Amino acid sequence: MIVQPGRVSLTQLEEIFRAATPVQLDRSVKPDVERAAAIIAKAAKGDAAVYGVNTGFGKLAKTRIAVEDTATLQRNLILSHSSGVGEPLAPHIVRLMMVLKLLSLGRGASGVRWALIELLEQMLEKGVTPIVPGQGSVGASGDLAPLAHMTAVMIGEGEADYQGQRMSGADALRRAGLKAVVLGPKEGLAMINGTQTSTALALAGLFEAWHLAKISLLTGAMSTDAAMGSNAPFHEKIQTLRGHQGQIDAAAQLRNLLEGSQIRDSHLENDERVQDPYCLRCQPQVMGAVIGMLRQVGYTLRIEANAVTDNPLVVGDDEIISGGNFHAEPVAFAADQIALAISEMGAIAQRRIALLVDPVLSFGLPAFLTPNPGLNSGFMIAEVTSAALMSENKQKAAPCSVDSTPTSANQEDHVSMACHAARRLLEMNQNLAHILGIELLSATQGIRLRAPLATSTKLQAAIKLVRQEVSALDDDRYISPDLVKAGALVREPSLLDGASIDLALEV
């Protein structure tokens, strides 16, 4: 894929994320990149102090560095800052980090040579993926530690994954037929200053949350039909009177999913309930708010993905200015918003599961969705599992962006905490997938118990896929594998194939 720095869309970023697509920068940006590199090279030989070019870093910015020590300065920066710990980030997230760094460097304000861009492109093409520990960034002076681990491989240090094997960065480059670079003035700083790790993690969280939002509409429609809930609250005029586009879109999808259901049509005249509980009735309002928030987050993260976020920056013809674009506050806020959306999707889905297993609320379904309650417990503890997962996500949804702490001898005295704010989204999405998997099985069981009445054609298509993985629950059995399979299924795009859900993240 050829990408244009400053103009990459969320759709392109998701394709890169999911398909491991090789990426190259549009060659039209090369003159600007080389012009900025020449300005930095000139500054490195000059008398004026330029941060990170001929000075130390952070609190050591007042220490001047001799021209002959420039390469050592940049190499030492990478080695000393490769201080991450914890489980390595998944390869597809590291690859997205690399692409985001390419986009930033390609704007022609960082002052790196074209050779660094070419090496990143070649590593992506040949599958040399740095091993990047997930912990160690506070999202302030850039994602220093994780980006240093990424850059270490480029200089023949650190570790990398190549053809499924973990090895030294030097061996990975050699086996792929690539050569390590010797960093020039400011190049090490340009590589590790920036928000690319936080942004890659936030984008990963966003893309998965958006998929699960569509799954939530599907499972919500299934639960509505299983409970013989009313589709009147999904009426178009109700939504337009409020005016939120996300709510309008959510209701339209729910109406579409339930269209033609015999279950709903069978009791229109005999339903004694005046109103359904909120978990059914207020789906457009809750999911609409989720959709609106995720779209806003997408807008923020698209800007950040295309941004220049290192320091100092080359601006104009020969001016080098220090600033603070590396501070990841926009990403931290975005990650906190995604966390809220994930938590709320799980909360309302869990209440729908609880409704289905409760014979007082489920409008005629047997207790715990088992044909023989008492002897069998059915979905009793599956619902408890969903409650446990919901509570975990509620706790994880507490904002990270408010938790600043001074670092680096008080030079970096306010930080964003964006990196772990975004990294926690991976586990939250996993929890949500399991909640929705339990709802998927519960609703499928409830719809089965409404036979001979049939649900809509679109929901039948989803049920068919479920039954290919998990058989109906008649008598109790060892149920954990069923829940695991359902949790995996809801993360697969195929579950939506017959649902005709038409929602765009980028509008």
Write a structural description.
The protein has 2 domains: 2-194, Fumarase/aspartase (N-terminal domain) (Fumarase C, Chain B, domain 1), CATH 1.10.275.10; 201-310 and 323-402 and 417-496, Fumarase C, Chain A, domain 2 (Up-down Bundle), CATH 1.20.200. It is 54% helix and 5% strand. It is built from 19 helices and 9 strands. The chain has helices at 10-19, 30-44, 70-81, 91-105, 114-126, 144-154, 169-175, 187-192, 196-226, 236-242, 245-258, 262-266, 278-281, 283-305, 329-357, 380-396, 418-448, 457-469, 480-489, and strands at 2-3, 24-25, 85-88, 129-130, 133-135, 159-162, 165-168, 313-315, 319-321. The strands form 4 sheets. The protein has a 3-stranded antiparallel beta sheet with strand order 4-6-7. Strands 1-2 form a two-stranded parallel ribbon. The longest helix has 31 residues, at 196-226. The radius of gyration is 26 Å and the shape is elongated.
Please describe the structure with a list of short key phrases separated by commas or semicolons.
507 residues, mainly alpha, Fumarase C, Chain B, domain 1, Fumarase C, Chain A, domain 2, 2 domains, two-stranded parallel ribbon, 19 helices, cytoplasm, Histidine ammonia-lyase
DSSP helical segment count: 19
Largest sheet at a glance?
Answer: 3 strands, antiparallel
Structural class: mainly alpha
How far from one another are the termini? 22 Å
Order of helices and strands: EHEHHEHHEEHEEHHHHHHHHEEHHHHH
| Approximate helicity band | 40-55%
The count of domains is 2
Rounded to the nearest angstrom, the radius of gyration is 26 Å
Mean pLDDT: 94
Q: Briefly note the CATH topology name of the largest domain.
A: Fumarase C, Chain A, domain 2
Tertiary shape: elongated
- What's the assembly state of these chains? single chain
Q: Stretches where pLDDT falls below 50 for ≥5 residues?
A: none
Number of strands: 9
CATH superfamily of the largest domain: Fumarase/aspartase (Central domain)
Protein name: Histidine ammonia-lyase
Family: Belongs to the PAL/histidase family.
EC number: 4.3.1.3
Keywords: Cytoplasm, Histidine metabolism, Lyase
